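Internal ticket #5521
Category: modeling
Description: The requester needs a full-assembly model to guide mutagenesis choices. All entity lines are attached below as received. Residue total reported by intake: 383.
Assigned to: D.W.
Attached entities:
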Amino acid sequence: MKLLTNLITTALVLLPLAGHAQGPSQNASKASEHSVKASGYGLASSAQVASATVAIPIIAVGSVGVASLSVGNALLDAASVTSKATDKCEPLEISDKVITAGPSPQALMNEEDI
Amino acid sequence: MSNLAKYLCLFVSLIANIVYAGSHQSTESKFDPEQVAQFAKQVERYAATQGARAFIMSRLGQPAKNLPDGIQFTHTAIAIYSNIQLTDGQIEKGYAIHNLYQNNANPKRSDLVIDYPMDFFWSVHELKAGIIIPSQQLQQRLVNAINNGYATQVHNSKYSLIANPFNNKYQNCTEHTLNLINAAIYQTTDMQQLKANTKAYFQPQKVKTNRFKLALGNLFMDGVRTSDHKGKIMTTTFSSIARYLEHNKLMQQAVIITPQLTENLHKNT
């Protein structure tokens, strides 16, 4: 009986260490895209779901340390962000679209092979 | 079956459930997609109104009451304002999130993954975000660091949930975030130099939990390791990063965002 008590106690001690709905650093990107698209949920009309292929950081001109980029010009966007009068950052534009990560290269290639 | 055998079977089944729960990747959200989408946009738009080119973001994947004292969030990453090309070729502006995620197939390893706010908050336990907006100069350096591939260069794929930021034996998401921040600050990816600077200037968070419990976790759960620690268990957290940046006057603000409000933790006006 004492052995059973000790075993159960040990197991219960470990329970809080287990992940719950989401582990500490788990990737949910695939899940979110499929679920949102499959659910048919009535997202607001302006909020379309879209998959991303690549994201390129936007460099700010006029601030410290402008780096050169080796990507296509279409994705380059150097915009002045600091108001000299107030030295305060201007608000940035954000798309209304709900963007999710696309499939991994391996997943994509496997889908195309089917 | 003898009583001992029965007890052992019960013990093994209990442990197996714990291990399974720890490594199982959730595919469902406890919130409606609309709620997650709205919250994700709320967070994005808040950062955008502050003009944030780069910021640190954290989420809560478990009930807060289950976390050790001093730990508010379960995952941290860096968000970078980006031109995002969609599958139809259109380009939209928003934040791309640069994460270190535990590998689903091998929990002892991690991968670097870029995703977006909707993905980031999809399976959270609570719609709550921790945001640290660095100084403008540090933001720019973080953007440059990402552009120059620093994220890969300071990544160690040997994963531990409670990695010690003072060495490079294992790494978790918050240590990788800290490595990137320091790589941006010191303009180097030399790991020895980064760890020397971390030891000199960064104060990690003590993990206030029973060491026996951690040792058992080490035995039964992939991704929980303690061999990189000597003495007290100390790890990197959202709060310890905020304190580090604030102390070094590299932080504009730190806020907690929920659907109901935005709470300022520290704001340098």
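Resolution: model delivered.
Comment from assignee: The longest helix of chain B spans residues 3-23.
Ticket closed.
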